[in-house]
Automatic annotation (TrEMBL):
Phylogenetic classification of the source organism: Bacteria, Bacillati, Bacillota, Bacilli, Bacillales
Residues of the active site: C78, H169, E171
Binding site for L-glutamine: G46, E47, S48, R105, I133, R134
UniProt protein name: Pyridoxal 5'-phosphate synthase subunit PdxT
InterPro entries the record matches: Class_I_gatase-like, PdxT/SNO, PdxT/SNO_CS
Pfam families per record: SNO
Reactions that this protein is recorded to catalyse: aldehydo-D-ribose 5-phosphate + D-glyceraldehyde 3-phosphate + L-glutamine = pyridoxal 5'-phosphate + L-glutamate + phosphate + 3 H2O + H(+); L-glutamine + H2O = L-glutamate + NH4(+)
């Protein structure tokens, strides 16, 4: 199984390492033509406005929308979550507009720019060490969205069919269980 990590900006190498720990082969994606060889794609953290601009510049908006239309799984972490959302609070234009969620950027405020915590995530056997860095929150979710975890009553992990998102960075620790969950999602969709 081959899983891509969008390599326009952000923590690409760490995601590839976590994917490989989860038994998949990870590859950095810099050109849209690479998407046809992939079974799934991760959109990493970074800065969502910059990632959005680079996606537009290199033709990734339509290419990833097509990839999603084929039912191929996508996993957005932190800024990747923001670019997958249908709505961004504050009137900012959405990017891929794939997932039926509304997000608030930098939602934890300046005093809590980054922190770590152990999170219970539905579908994982043990609490996950989650690293939040200037993280977004999901402030509203449509009926097709399943909430997988919350932090202080706010949604921080969610799934809608073949789409998975987390507010935090699951690639910055040695715990690859959320990557393993994503790899399992891909296996399910590949099954005839
Ligand atoms: N604060 C960033 C944004 O709004 C996301 C931060 C991250 O990906 N760690 O795009």
């Amino acid at each position: 199984m081959k899983v891509g990590v969008l390599a326009l900006q952000g923590a690409v190498g760490e995601h590839i390492r976590s994917l490989e720990s989860a038994g998949a082969s990870g590859t950095a994606v810099k050109r849209t033509e690479q998407l046809s060889e992939l079974d799934g794609l991760i959109i990493p953290g970074g800065e969502s406005t910059t990632i959005g601009k680079l996606m537009r510049k290199y033709g990734f908006i339509e290419a990833i929308q097509d990839f999603s239309r084929e039912g191929k799984p996508l996993f957005g972490t932190c800024a990747g979550l923001i670019v997958m959302a249908k709505e961004i609070e504050g009137g900012e234009e959405s990017h891929l507009g794939l997932m039926d969620i509304k997000v608030s950027r930098n939602a934890f405020g300046r005093q809590r720019e980054s922190f770590e915590t152990d999170l219970e995530v539905k579908g994982l056997d043990a609490p996950l060490r989650a690293v939040f860095i200037r993280a977004p929150l999901i402030t509203a979710a449509g009926p097709g969205v399943e909430v997988l975890s919350t932090y202080k009553d706010e949604i921080v992990t969610a799934r809608q069919g073949h789409l998975l998102v987390s507010s935090f960075h699951p690639e910055l620790t040695d715990d690859f269980s959320l990557h393993a969950y994503f790899v399992e999602m891909i296996k399910q969709t590949k099954r005839p």
